[in-house]
Structure formats: structure tokens, C-alpha cells
Amino acid sequence: MTTAKAKKAQQLIHPDRDNRFSSEDNPFEAMMLRFDDAARRLKLEPGLYKVLRAPEKQLIVSIPIMRDNGEIEVFTGFRVQHNTSRGPAKGGIRFDMAVSIDEVKALAAWMTWKCAVVNLPFGGGKGGVICDPSTMSMAELERLTRRYTAAIIDIIGPDQDVPAPDVNTNERVMAWIMDTYSMHKRHTVTAVVTGKPIDMGGSQGRRDATGRGCLVVTMRALQRKKMKVQGATVAVQGFGNVGATAARLMAEVGMKIVAVSDKSGAIHNPKGIDIAKAEQFIKAHTFLEGFPGAKPISNEELLALPVDVLVPAALENVITSKNAAKIRAKIICEGANGPTTAQADAILDAKGIYVIPDILANAGGVTVSYFEWVQDRGGYFWDEKTVNERLEKIMITSFDEVSEMSVKHKVSMRIGAYMLSIQRVAAMHRLRGLYA
Ligand code: NAD
């Protein structure tokens, strides 16, 4: 980090924080830099600052399972509840070799701010197991999931902590968690997890929810910038659940998707790419590589295209201090979690690029997870139209509230989003007081 940048970052640090610095791409640091900036602007009381930084509960469990060959192996799993002042902890469970307690703590805090920015009655949580699911059979994964669920059963539940899918976990894994929990409780408890199959209490509209949320906030941003939706050009990085859905829904409202990408690289056509055909192509060929009617380009080139809207919807840390100056999009809608580093924020701000921050832009997923939990608890299920209408209402209201905060305090949409969510969580803490 240059001296000037280090000085700027230092100014953002709250006085009560220990000043440990690490690299630009550390997600916990990235989140804490924004948290500190927002907390300082809100003049958050030092005591409350300390409370909001610390996770409420961290559980580390050993998970012994029998492999298919009869050998016993012991895995390590985590569940962290960062803050439950506003309601049950909410957040995914990931199965990955890169899982660590620090990462889970950071992601749990991230969920606290995301749930608060869209005003859901949830706190933030996250879980994970250190494992490589690609080397495990379905039966081994089931045993791992069920034993992990049994190990964390005392701290999860519809009123306590509601897990969901994350990296390498899916509807199938959620179904096993729900069944294991229900067998222990001796009755069916669908609301213990979200992201379940529709046949067992999942919600209509959940699969498209994150991409749909991206569409809603992007349309709002275009309106704010007095830009037309019809013909607005879009580049989307990542063609999975979030990216492909956002691209499809944006194309449906008349936006022109000129570039999309996945792990295999990017494709570009200034006249527009047929997203339905690209989705069909992926079904047949797994990757976009070789898609006819578009020119192959690199993912770096995609990020630098002169488009109206750029949707990074693949990975974290793709817009950094190294490439932010090259970005030519007018609006960035962060479909992925943490695609922009704190250092890149300053560069994008200086260029006047309008960034819809991740904790707002991709909150459509957790919003429909909330709807799933509400439907399970009420035992009454909504049709997809109702889900989509309610999602749209929440995304529009949240966008406008963040925008208002950013205008009032003359800060970016990102810092506005953090200020709004910290304010909401802090208000709950002040009302509840400190139990002693
Ligand atoms: P996914 O696995 O369905 O899709 C990821 C896509 O990114 C794939 O097309 C993959 O090929 C592509 N990709 C991987 N590496 C790439 C690279 N180096 N360059 C370009 N593309 C690359 O995942 P997803 O569910 O769509 O999630 C994407 C991001 O959105 C993640 O950051 C995730 O945390 C975030 N997110 C997802 C949801 C959700 O509901 N799925 C909700 C909130 C946030």
C-alpha cells in the first residue's frame, strides 16, 4: 500500500480498533474498513462499537464419519453467530477446504449488515466444514451433513439460527439438515433452514431471487442517473445462479447484454448476446467457451468494457487498485459478495462510477429466504407472483433508503448502506440495553 493510501485507510479506522493491517484482498479487512468508516461517521459509541465487532457465539465441532471404505475420518466444522439482536442468525453453510474460523466470522458479520440493510428481522450467522466434497461420495456427504447438524443442533433452530446453502452446499444438503433436525425434535421443522426444495417447504422464486434483486436495484440506479433501461448495455461476469439470472431478467426488460463470462473466459458481442441461447449452450457444454455469435475476450477485458452497467457476479476481489482505473462502466451492480476492494472504492468514486454495493445489490437471495421462513412458520405458501412483488418492494425501499443516507451524509452508496445497517442494529442494542 502506498503511503498516501495507507494514510487514507488509517483515517478510516475507528479510534477503538486495533490497527492490524493485511493485504488488499482480505475480505474481513475489506468489510471492516467499510464498517469502521460508517461507524466513525455515525459517531457510534465506543462501547457499542466493541459489541458490534465481536461475534456473539463461535462453535467449533469435530465431525467423525465413516468413509465408504470403512475408515473413520474426523472433519472440523464451525457455526458462528455474529449478532442476533434483531432476530435469529441467518447465513449459509459452506463445505470447502478453504473454510476457517476467521473466514466464517467475517462472513457471519457480513450477513448481519446485509440482513439489516434490507430490514429483515434477522441477525447474521455463517457455518462451514473443512472438506473437499468433490472427493466424497453422496453417502459420505450425507453422513457428514447429518453429523455436523447433530453437532450444532443446540444453537440452530427457527428462532435461533437458520442456515442456508452456500459454496458447495445446495437444496439436497438443506433437506438432510432439515430431516436430521426434525428427527431430533420429534416433529417436522421446515423453518430450520432455507433454500430447501419446493416440495419440502422451499419458496417459489428463490432460485431467481438474487438475480431479480440485481435487476430491481439496477433499474432504480438507471432511473437515478436519468439513463434509459431500453438498450442500456450490460456486461456480466459469472454465468451461474446470480449472473445468468441477472442477465436473463435484464434482457427481458430490454437491456442489451453485450458480454458475459464464466470460468472458461468471456464472450463479447456489441450487438447483444442471446441469453436464452447462452443458457441452453451451457446446459449442453458446461462452459460458455465456443458459444457461436460472440467474440472470445478475457475476463479482464470484460471488466473494462465501456458499458452502462457492469455486473460482477462471480468472485470476490475482481475490481482492485490494479484495474479500477480501467473500469469504464457507469453503474456497477455487485451481484457477487466482495467483488470490489476498499482500495478500489476510492478510485471508482473519484471516477464518478455509481456502485450498488453487494450488501444491497445481492440481498434479494436472503430476502426470499426470509419469505421462505415466514411461509414455513405460517404454513401458508405464496405464488411466485406474490414472492416477486414483495421482493421488488423490499429492494426498491432499501435502495431508496440507502440512497437517502448517501445523499444526506455525502458518502458513497456503499458507506450509505453500512451506515443504514449499523444504525438499525445499534438502535436495537440501545433499546434492549445491556443485560448484566
Ligand atoms: P455459481 O457457482 O452458481 O456461479 C459462479 C459463476 O462464476 C460460474 O459461472 C463460474 O463459472 C463463474 N466463475 C468462476 N470463476 C470465475 C472467474 N475466474 N472468472 C469469471 N467467472 C468465473 O455461484 P452464484 O450462486 O451465482 O454466486 C456468485 C456470487 O454471488 C458469489 O460471490 C456468491 O457469494 C454471491 N451471492 C450468491 C447468492 C445466491 O443466491 N446464489 C446470493 C448472494 C450472493
> How can the largest sheet be summarized?
7 strands, mixed
Gap from first CA to last CA: 43 Å
Stretches with pLDDT under 50, minimum 5 residues: 1-22
Rg is: 21 Å
Corresponding CATH architecture of the domain at 209-361: 3-Layer(aba) Sandwich
Beta-strand proportion? 15-25%
- Give the count of helical stretches: 15
CATH first level of the domain at 209-361: which class? Alpha Beta
Largest sheet strand order: 9-8-7-6-10-11-12
Q: Specify the overall morphology.
A: globular
| Overall pLDDT score | 94
Small-molecule binders here are: nicotinamide-adenine-dinucleotide
Proportion in helices: 40-55%
Decide which structural class fits the backbone. Answer: alpha/beta
CATH homology superfamily of the domain at 209-361: NAD(P)-binding Rossmann-like Domain
The name CATH uses for the topology of the domain at 209-361 is Rossmann fold
List how many beta strands DSSP finds.
12
What is the helix/strand order? HHHEEEHEHEHHEHEEHEHEEHEHHHH
